[in-house]
Amino acid sequence: MQRTYRTKSKERILLFFQNHRDKMVSAAEIHDFLQENDDKVNLATVYRNLDKMTEDGVLIKYKDSQEDKAVYQYVGEHDKCHEHLHMQCLKCGILIHLECDFMKEITDHLLVQHQFDLHSSKSILYGMCGECRVEVKE
Q1: What confidence tens digit (pLDDT) does each residue in 51-104 have?
Q2: How far apart are CA 40 and CA 111, in angstroms?
Q3: ∠53-102-86 over CA atoms, to 5°?
Q4: pLDDT reported for residue 1
Q5: Tell me, what's the pLDDT at 43?
Q6: Distance CA 127, CA 60 (A)
Q7: Percentage of the chain surpassing pLDDT 70?
Q8: Coil, strand, or helix at residue 127?
Q9: Which domains does the chain have, with CATH numbers?
Q10: Beta-carbon-side half-sphere exposure of residue 82 (alpha carbons within 13 Å)
């Protein structure tokens, strides 16, 4: 049986994600947060923690659409992230979970009509959220 270690850095990383549930963040952002809060952890340790948390299902790892870097999102109560799509606002960066009943209809259609098995947890639709759309119209 493998032991799970709870370090101060890991706890602070988890707290950061819990406080930023609707955002995708990079390892550099986490590292900066830790440095600002007197946790002098190196970047390699941050990556190691992020990889472990991703492996454990606590985080989902994505490739940022605007930059060529990995970003992470806290799963939290969205423990079924692998079953639905995500939408991200290109203006504010909020990540919205598309947990609608029609997800099964979409995945079934893609499989039957296009022989394509969708891996929803890695799928993001990009656009503008309602709040940002209102700001643009004003």
Answers
A1: 999 888 888 888 776 667 888 888 865 566 667 788 888 888 777 878 777 878
A2: 48
A3: 30
A4: 44
A5: 92
A6: 20
A7: 86
A8: strand
A9: 1-78 (1.10.10.10), 80-138 (3.30.1490.190)
A10: 6
| Residue showing tokens 């970047």 | 43
Residue with tokens 């098995």: 117
Q: What angle do CA 112, 115, 120 make, to 5 degrees?
A: 90
First to last CA, the chain: 58
3-state secondary structure at position 46: helix
Question: Residue 130: what residue type?
Answer: G
- Short-list 80, 93, 83, CA closest to 26: 93
Going by the DSSP 8-state scheme, the letter that residue 44 receives in this structure is H
Task: Give the whole-angstrom CA distance, residue 69 versus residue 11.
Answer: 24
As given in the structure block, the two tokens for residue 37 are 């809060």
3-state secondary structure at position 138: coil
What is the C-alpha to C-alpha distance for residues 28 and 6, in angstroms, rounded to an integer? 21
Q: pLDDT of 12-25, one tens digit each?
A: 899 899 888 878 88
Residue-level pLDDT at 113: 95
